[in-house]
Task: structure prediction
Amino acid sequence: MPLVAFGMILSWSRFRLWWFTTSEDRHPTFEGAVRFFDQVGGVPAVCRTDRMGALGRSQGRRFELHPPTVGFAAHHGTKITSCQAGDAKRKGKVERPFRQLQETFLPEVEADGVPVDLADLNRRAEVWLAERVHGIESRTTGETPAARLAAERDFLAPLPRVRFDTDYVEARRVHNACPFVAIDANRYSVPPEALGHKVEIRRPVDSNTVEVRLAGRLIATHRLVPGRRVEVWDPAHQAGRRSARARLGPEGPRSARSDRSAGPDRR
Result:
């Protein structure tokens, strides 16, 4: 499993966030920024980023934001701009903390024992920053980042009333005869009432659980399984299918036979 560290820092207070995830695409990038805004209690007027392909596209010296990034900025009332190549003054404020992460934090994590999961690693990062960074006087400012954040917070814009949606969301149509939706080469059951309908599949960032919604109503929750061409059944969906077929009788339409079946989803 790949491991990616998202980092964000307030330039004046030097208060920062490290958040570990499994991808550097748009969704976890937005999730990391939202977590940072929540942690500092507000939104800065300007967010400056390296030229991340998840956020935009370079055109010479210009960096054109992708439409979802423009929407993210508008939702939070902030401006997202990029650092120019060779802008050591601005880029250094982000790159130096990452050097500390690689040279100090991660070796200490390894010495203390490998984290059991991402949540454990992120908890350790939060504690480490609180004890080793935010509560220690900066050699540059002469104050602790935590103390300066208390003053800087007054200059941040309020958090939006509705949290930005960072989930992976896509629409799929359920087969007319087989009550399944395909996700990552496997098939997951839905109630018979969803046959032939378009449904929404929603997965939070770094979650191994997916939700299926029909017309905004939650109709299925599944834990993702490894492998390919595996069928995952919710026992209630299986019972509903048998009941529906019994009501139709032997002359009713038949569901297609599956090539391979797995036991019910265990949570």
